[in-house]
Specification:
- The protein is an all-alpha fold.
- The chain folds into three domains: 73 residues; 74 residues, no CATH class; 38 residues.
- The protein is built from nine helices and no strands.
- Helix 1 runs parallel beside helix 3, helix 3 packs across helix 4 and helix 5 crosses helix 8.
Length: 196
Amino acid sequence: MNDSNKKEFSEIMLATGEIYNKTLTKTLMAMYFDDLKSFTIEQVSESLRKHRLDPKSGQYFPKPADIVRNIEGANISTEDRALTAWMSVEAAISSVGSYGTLKIEDKQAMMAVKAIGSWQQLCATDRDKLAFKRQEFIANYRALENTPVEMLPESLPGIAELENQRNAECGIASDLLIKLEKRSNGIDRIKKLKDC
């Protein structure tokens, strides 16, 4: 884009802002224009249209990265995205392991891992059987393509986090039992006093 596209760009962005109930300042518009000036106005317009129609990210006002991803990612297949996500998962198996919590940007990938079983189960898989898990992951990734982003997990807890949660829950349960026991003892004392 160049300066001759600024008016059309502003109109497109303002209309997009209306859809998302977002007020756009001149400074924000200038920043978006600067970030996207390497693309044509047609590419930006089409990318914004794709964003609005996307069941996952289309619920939120697009950031420049969302617009760029729609432009540059237009030729990337679901299979390729799944393979890229699998590489991230494989790297996390080695670096994070089953005791750590899996946190990767691609929430669809985390849900695909969860659909396989669990993070701990995947980490415990023998290396020679990971190729089968990879195929299962890719199939799950494809099946999750149109799942709304808010339905996908932020992370998958590892053994350490699960143990911490379990300990916290046990601590709460223990505190409740102590309080109930104290209350019960108090009631028993009142009954004894009434009997006297």
